[in-house]
Amino acid sequence: MIVSWLLLALSFLSFSNGSHKTNKYEGYKIYSVTSRLRSVGLAKTLSELGKNVPYYEVFSGFKGGNSAKVMVHPEEQVNFEKLMEENNADYDIISRDVALTLSSEYEANRMLRERIPYNGRLGTERYYTHDEINQFIADLAKEYPSRVFLKTVGKSYEGRSLKTITITNGDARRNKNVFLVDGGFHAREWISPAAAVYLISELVENLEENADLLQDFDWVILPVVNPDGYEFTQTSADNRLWRKTRKPSSANCIGTDPNRNFDFHWNEEGASQDPCAQIYAGPKPFSEPEAVVVGNLIHTYADRGKMYLTLHSYGSLILYPWGWTTEVPETVDDLQEVAEAGQQAIIGDTGTVYLVGSCTETIGYAASGASDDYAYNAGFPISFTMELPFGGSGFDPPASDIDHLVKEAWVGIAAMARKVIEKYPLVNIPSGARGIFF
Ligand code: 0X9
Ligand code: ZN
Fold first, then answer.
1. What average pLDDT does the segment 321-348 reach?
2. Ligand 2 centroid, distance to 181 Cα (angstroms)
């Protein structure tokens, strides 16, 4: 009798655990593909496969010479493996059942959230919600009223507040140069808001060590550009791989790629007009409120802004314009020099190698209508997309990896900022110009 009660209790337990199990990705696999010939043809083939929604999703092509990661629907796996063999490509399977991977991660994150409640500080122990991040920056503004300023710069489609945090050294000098940083463009790239939060903590709470970074420069940071998408990825394992915004775009598809929605070479190469595609550019430039907010920030700070930095994952890359063409801007040497300062600092710190180069050449494909090109074109002399490293099966580094990933990213960002300060010193602040500014 006792045994059968025990069995019943056990089966109930496993059933209730199973309630978090995702069905959507049952049997999907993620392949890591390498090609001895590194053929351009194979990259093209993969990118063509990627158009076959929902059978394929190419998480990353041969970015910077890395292996390509492709998620494949169970019904297509035989075909895919055959195709790879025909193309002389080698592959490993990095997730044998994406549903299982995602549901166990969902459970791990849920437990961490329970175990580590928000306590006024955001550490690197776990991933945080948009509300917690907004709460954190509001708490900082209260605690450091002469150094930290918040501004609501817009609302997401679902009505979440988009807030910038401006960090100064508190000397109240106006019209300093500006570093503009954002994170969380793509919903599933959780390490990006985590890196933005770490950057904020460092600049606010470690003034002594970072005094030079705040002497003639203010930092304006929007930690989560796409909070609707970001929150959506946290609601269930099924939604963990969501990339886009959440505004319905057609009868059966939701969301636009905010990083294809900017009004600069909008909807050219590497963007799609299929509302179901992951790289849907939207019905028109700046159709998404979240992209409008970033566009406005870029214009607000274009005069004083010396570096625009947008944090993404993954690929371990520091990318500069252009992303819409294979050509590079005339100032490519400056971009390269600053990016290399970041690259070398990270190598010196942890040995992680971030590759450096123009978006199109380094990733191996053009992606037009993105914020980095827009900011560079608007007047930021330095504009980078920083792709933090691969983790888990791609966009899901386990929480135990957050600490070292965001710390090494910070080392790179600080080094790039120092190079920018050296190259673009502040000129001409009228001595009377003091006071709060935005
Ligand atoms: O494709 C993107 O939007 C970025 N990669 S991600 O995997 N995070 O989605 C890269 C954007 C690089 N910039 C341009 N192509 N302009
Ligand atoms: Zn991204």
1. 98
2. 14
> What is the extent of the structural domain holding 56?
2-96
User: How confident is residue 53, by pLDDT bands cut at 50, 70 and 90?
Assistant: confident
CB within 8 Å of 292: residues ≥ 6 apart: 154, 286
Beta strands in 237-362 (DSSP E): 305-313, 317-320, 355-358
**Residue 372 CA to ligand 2 centre (angstroms):** 12
Residues with C-beta less than 6 Å from any ligand 1 atom: 186, 189, 259, 312, 319, 323, 359, 367, 370, 372-373, 385, 387
Q: Per the domain annotation, does 111 fall within a domain?
A: no
Taking CA atoms only, the protein residue closest to ligand 1 atom 12 is 359
pTM of the entire structure?
A: 0.93
**3 state SS of 156:** coil
- Which ligand is in closest contact with the Cα of 359? 1
Q: pLDDT (tens digit, 9 = 90+) per residue, 388-432? A: 999 988 899 999 999 999 999 999 999 999 999 999 999 866 655
The angle formed by the CA atoms of residues 112, 113 and 114, to the nearest 5 degrees, is 90
How many Å lie between the centroid of ligand 1 and the Cα of residue 319?
Answer: 9
85 catalytic? Reply is no
* CB 260, CB 268: distance < 8 Å: no
* The residue type at 260: R
CA 302, CA 304: separation in Å to the nearest integer? 6
Closest CA to 366 of 327, 329, 328, 323: 323
> Per the domain annotation, does 433 fall within a domain?
no
Å from CA of 313 to ligand 2 middle: 5
Question: What average pLDDT does the segment 50-69 reach?
Answer: 83
Q: Which atom of ligand 1 is nearest to the CA of 322?
A: 16
| Interval 233-290: pLDDT, tens | 999 999 999 999 999 998 789 999 999 999 999 999 999 999 999 999 999 999 999 9
Which of 62-66, 261-265, 368-372 shows the lowest per-residue confidence on average (mean pLDDT)?
62-66
Are both 330 and 228 inside the same structural domain? yes
Q: Given 96, 129, 152, which residue is the final one in a domain? A: 96
pLDDT of 14 strictly over 80: no
Domain count, the chain: 2
**Whose alpha carbon is nearest atom 16 of ligand 1?**
323
Nearest to 242 by CA among 276, 285, 273, 267: 276
Q: What is the model's pLDDT at position 436?
A: 52
Residue 56 maps to a domain: yes
